[in-house]
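Handout, section B. The chain below has 996 residues.
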Amino acid sequence: MSLEGGELEHRESAAWENAMFRAMIECLQDQVVTVHDIGDSARIIYANEAACRHFGVDLETLLTWCPLDFDPTHDEESLRLSLEQHRLTGGMTFETLHRVAGGEVIPVEVTTNLFEQNGKRLAMCISRDLRPRREAEERIKEIERLRAEQAGLRRLSRFAQCAPGFMYTVEQRADGSLAMTYASSGVEDVLGLSVAAVLEDIGRIHALVVPEDREMLLQHETPSRVELLPFQSEYRIQHPAKGERWLEARSLPERQGTGATLWHGFLVDVTERKRMEETLRFIAQRSWATEGEAFFSGMARHLGKTLGVDYVIIDRLTRESEFAETVALYARGEELPHICYRLTGTPCESLMGRSLCCFPRQVRKLFPEDAMLRDMAVESYAGVPLWDSTGTAIGLIAVMDGRPMAETDSVTALLQLVAARVAAALERDRSERQLRAKEQEFRSLVEHSPDTVARYGRDCRRIYANPRLVEEAGVPLSELLGRTPAEFPGGESARAYQAKIRQVFDTGMPEEFELTWTTAQGGEVVSHIRLTPEVGFEGEVRHVLAVGRDITEIDAYRRRIHHMAFFDTLTGLPNREMLNERIRKAMESGASGAGERFALMMLDLDRFKEINDTLGHGVGDLLLEKAAHRLLGAVRGEDMVARLGGDEFAVLVPEPNDRAELATLAARVLGAFAEPFLIEGRELFVSASLGIALYPKDCTGIETLFRFADTAMYHAKRRGRNNFQFYSADLTARASERMRIESALRRALQRNELELYFQPQIDMTDGAFVGAEALLRWKRLGQGIMLPHKFIPVAEESGLIVGIGEWVLAQACGAAVAWNRHREQPLRVAVNLSTRQFILNDLAGTVRRILDETGCPPQWLELEITESLLLEDSKEIRATLETFDRMGLSIAIDDFGTGYSALSYLHRFPVKRIKIDRSFVRGVPSDRRKSEVVKAMISIAQAMSLEVLAEGVETPLQAIYLQAHGCRLAQGHLFGIPLPRSGFEAMAGNDRGIVS
């Protein structure tokens, strides 16, 4: 059958196209092209020449392969799923693996496109070997890494130039020689050498190291060279410009393939830190080993050497605060004798009231009057003041040098660091010199005795013990080595000490411990031991070094101080501090739910001051000791007796059952004082007053508890002493009222609130005025007139009675002068004197001055005193009364018969008049017994030639009875009530008789 022309032409065209397509594919030499029949498990039906080279097989073999033959990532199921995905997407690009003829697996990128031909679904795959591209990518990454590394090196170089200290690289060549191959610019500041100098010759650095540290530096370098361990060391150099400096060097070794070793590291100046560390270590050691002058001298020497200055002074201010005296004076390596100098015109004067003062140069020009600066050729000065615990300047510490001061911040920082410790030592030296003298003696013994030293291994067994430890232990060295503290010396304290050693091994931190142990001879020793870890190059604690010092005596001092802090030195009883601590614990116990109740008794010895004043403090101390002993015998075993101070004691009664039990205990305590005290062959009778407050019934605060018990005790004193009283709320109210009265009374004179009233005294024979008694009234602002019995007791207790008494005397004398200016028969004014006026001032001198100032003749003034004043029978009171008598004053006994009346004092003292108290007159004549008493008083007075004046006469019958039995003088409402001065003067101006 022949083909039509058009069909033939079409076929020829398709054949040409296929040939052209094949030719184009064959030209792709670097790309693998395969065509797969999707319907036949993706078998290859076409492959170009590049595909044959890629897989390493001929075309005939390749046309038998499907993906399962060369793609190790596929199995039948995964291939099926992949072909299904290709049908849905029409083609895709992905990465996979090809296994070629030699077994090598090659990473490839495959791009697939699906098409149909002659009714078949075919897939053309173009595969590209990924190895060249990945190699290119790795080269790009390497280039980028190198660029980043170069940028980092440039940043590191800039950092090295700016960092403190200087960075370096040291090379040890194969022949053992050393050279510095790199040094940052910081070398010029740290070492005073140029970069070129150290790169040229590293020996110039070693030449700067002080000779004492060269061996130590070599010991640190050797392990780093031999074992390639990190190098770290601190050593001193002699800086060309700065003098001796401390440096810290650190570096890491790196072994090179050539056999050389490089050390990359840095070197920094740590002088300021070392100064601080050395100073803190010095303070820590001296704070318990040395005090007083030795401490100050050591501190001055330490600062002088540490700072490299010529002079260091530590001064204390004198009492006048214008002068200072040195407690330590360090001058160019020597300690000079102490001197005293005036602060005015010196730089030390500038310190007062400031935190610090620094003159880095030309200080002599700033203070030309300071001869000491001139004589010592001082150029620079820095100092800080020393303050005590109250904030008062007590001294100063200063350094001076003949050169300008370059590092002022470092110097002042170090001075401020030591100032607090030096100030504390100076304050302690000022207040506890006697104790410090004994402590100094002990410190001297300790400083001249070697310390005990031991080294422990990780099993806490001793591997070394020095002779001092052997001597103290009293056993051979063989019995110390290889044993733990628990094995020797043994005991609870030693076991705790061993646990502390283990803690240092575990933490690597130093510790301190006080070990109490018993020697082989049975002596008990207390040692203060500092445990220091010995660290290896890898940072592990290899050993623990124990340095011990015998502080047995210090421990005894501490116990004694503890006893002094919590116990009374005279009686041996607990003091206020221990009592407060016991009360606080009881209160905390109650707050936590235990519900502890207790009572506080406050006890005060009655009239103890009189015993001290008359018999002396030695007898008073003996009495207090015996009183404490009786108190302890009167209370229960669980009760706590404390001495609060003076003659004041306290009893803490835990868990009382009720008030009745407390009353029984209080009565037993008071009963303990019923018997006399026999002291130095003399019997002394002393009673006590006792106040009781309950917790928590009365209050819940410790201060309030003490105040309430104290209030109850003073209430017992006001109730006549020798009794006990429980606290009640009205006591606080009364005490508050007394405080308000005292506060207002202090301003009463300034506000002109006090006024004198006058009650006439009458001669009943003719009714004429003979005088008046001055009676004080207080017109309290906003509260009307207050009578004396309300405020005079407060004035006497507070001492205000002295000033008020002077005012009363002046007013009374002034009134007498005004009344008697034109009277033929002068009136006499009577003024009451308080016992406190006799005690607190020169009463006779005061009366004389007031008489002179007012122009009042002495015979116009009568001074009234109480019988209790005469009962004291003191030389001072007798001398004062005799002085009044010689001056011409009249002395009267007020309220006669109400006190401890005794006829003996009527003839021993210059008494001119007695005043019968109104309590006796009130019963005349109806009360037979009082009438007889009054008649007896009049008879006694007449027999002793004394005048008699009856007080409180209110009825004519009383006046008639008194007059009939020889009493002619009287005062009372029958003759006139107390009146202000103007009212009295109006009454006295009428000279007619009052009584007919």
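Note. The CA atoms of residues 438 and 444 lie 10 Å apart. Compare this with the example in section A.
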